[in-house]
Amino acid sequence: MTEAQFEGIITGNAATPKMAADTISSGLKEKVSELGSMAIDDVLNMVVTGLVHFTIRLAIAIVIFYIGRFIINKLHKLVATIFIKRDIDRSLTTFVLSLIRIVLYFILLVIVINILGLETSSFLAIFASAGVAIGLALSGTLQNFAGGVLILLLKPYKIGDYIEAQGYSGTVKEIQIFSTILTTPDNKQILIPNGGLSTGSINNYSKEDYRRVDWTISIAYGDDVTKAREVILDILFSDPRIVQKYVEDDREQRLIATEKANHINDTDGNIQTILPEKKKSLWYRLTHKTKKLPNIGEIVDTRHKSILAQLPKTDCSPMVALNMLNTSSIDLTVRAWTASSTYWGVFFDMNERFYKELPLHGINFPFPQLDVRVQSQPEIDK
Fold first, then answer.
1. Which residue in 136, 145, 175, 239 has the fewest CB atoms around it within 10 Å?
2. CB–CB of 46/52 below 8 Å?
3. What single string gives the DSSP state of each residue in 169-208?
4. Could you give the 3-state DSSP secondary structure of residue 132?
């Protein structure tokens, strides 16, 4: 409200809407009359000058847009390189990179609009009001965004894990701002909204490094159950992938074997000479992992592992037990523990070995059968 309008309200001479409309129409009439009084050359010069100024602004805006896009791509690659070199979680990397790209493009759009001569404040006000309306209309999308943030903070899964959620199962390929991308074993791509994942149940098959493998083996009635148990246990204990007794001992043995293999590879490989610290460039310091203090998550994981180490060990030896006396078979339950990475290999290999080796020891696999007895009826004298 201007000072004249305020003074008009105080004195009772405020302009009515009709008077305001008359003022606007009179102003337009004055502009039209001014244009009508101007010569054609002056009008053409004014139009040409306006077009030239707008063309220059448009050209500058286009150049700024392409330069800004080039800078955004370079920053995106720089941040991605830093995250990869510093071994930051891939889930957090993809989420942060997509968020950075969106924010930078929004800033670039505001700059381009300002160069074109439009009022940035008005644009921001319109964008804010539109954002509120869009936010109310897209409340589910905002819920998916919040779900993505929760997934990155709580980490119920990460990229590379095999999970089952929302009726789908597959390997996590990417965690985006609004959704998570799964790749099924038959190479289908599934997008699941993060909102449902953050509030629903998730079965993460890759969270633990060891899993139990279960089989059900049916043998025929009359076969020696004790003999079958001994043969099956011999098959299981002969496989080095099977945990013999304790998971902790097997994990330690695998770690020692991995360290020996890495030591042999490092000895046989070429040793790279690294410059002293004072000669390292800024790019090297940014893109290479340096010694850093452990974060809160690492401290919690370390403390959790120390607490678990104090608990008594659980016997995870292979076991065979009689499960059920079925209609035409005796069902044996077989259980064994192995590393998650060798789960399916052990499952399929043991199935084949059971099928080939059990009959060699007199253990037969039954077939569904039905005994039919026919009784003869005495002849009736006619």
1. 136
2. no
3. EEEEEEE-SSEEEEE-TTS-EEEEEHHHHHHS-EEETTSS
4. helix
Q: What is the pLDDT along the chain (382 residues), one digit of tens a residue?
A: 444 544 444 444 444 444 444 554 565 566 556 655 666 666 677 777 777 787 888 888 888 888 888 888 888 888 888 877 776 666 667 777 777 888 888 888 888 888 877 666 666 666 666 666 655 555 567 778 788 878 877 788 888 889 998 888 999 988 887 888 999 988 899 998 888 888 888 888 888 889 999 999 999 988 999 999 999 999 999 999 999 988 888 888 888 877 777 766 655 555 444 444 444 555 555 555 555 545 555 666 676 667 666 777 788 899 999 999 988 889 999 999 999 889 999 999 999 999 999 999 999 888 776 677 777 766 666 5
The owner of tokens 């001014």 is 34
State the angle between helix axes of 139-154 and 120-137 in degrees (0 to 180), rounded to the nearest 10: 90
* Phi, psi for 313 (deg, rounded to 5): -75, 150
| Start-to-end Cα distance in the chain | 125
- Compute how many other C-beta atoms are within 10 angstroms of the C-beta atom of residue 235: 20
Q: Which of 280, 300, 299, 298 is nearest to 290 (CA)?
A: 280
Buried b (16+ CB within 10 A) or exposed e, 333-348: ebebbbbeebbeebee
**Which of 275, 277, 259, 278 lies closest to 267, judged by CA?**
259
Phi, psi of 327 (to 5 degrees): -65, -40
Dihedrals phi, psi of 174, to nearest 5 degrees: -160, 140
Residue at token pair 């039919």: 372
Element (H, E) at 217: strand 210-219
Residue linked to tokens 């790209």: 101
Place of tokens 């370079």: 74
| 319-325, strands of its sheet edge to edge | 210-219, 330-339, 319-325
Judge whether 101 and 72 are in contact, CB under 8 Å: yes
Give me the residues paired with residue 183 across strands.
171, 189
In DSSP terms, 217 is beta-bridged to 332
